[in-house]
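In this supplementary section we document a worked example of the pipeline. Step one takes a protein sequence of length 152 as its only input; no multiple sequence alignment statistics are reported here. Step two produces a three-dimensional model, which step three serialises into structure tokens for compact storage. The input and output of this example are shown verbatim.
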Amino acid sequence: MSKAIAAYNRVVGALESKLSEGVALLVLRVAFAGIFWRSGRTKIAEGSWITLSDTTKALFRDEYAGVPLPPDLAAVAATAAEHLFPILLLVGLATRLSAMALLGMTFIIQLFVFPDAWWPVHSLWVAMALILIARGGGLFSVDQLLTKGRRR
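The serialised model returned by step three reads:
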């Protein structure tokens, strides 16, 4: 085996480690959570932690009217989801469930709100969610701590 191939194999071996995967999944969780967290915060009245803004209510009543839920319910559900699931992703608790919920939300946004946003926006969100669903929260997650406890 040549020195170049041996060096390449060492690099690939290091990149395949639990540590590097854990770092990558942590960065992915933070990035994916940030997308939805920032969106959720725009729906809250200024100076409030949980009160929906009048703009949000109007947005769901008028511009997001295609969503197959009553506007008041859709506004509350979307805002709650955009706060709860990103927090869970950040700490890595129920990572797969949270990613599935945000994947579902992405599809609703794609189908009923912004059908022209598949490329490049929603396709990237789907890819991010699918990686988290397939791999979980990784080494630096509460899920990992709970899984270790179950194996003992």
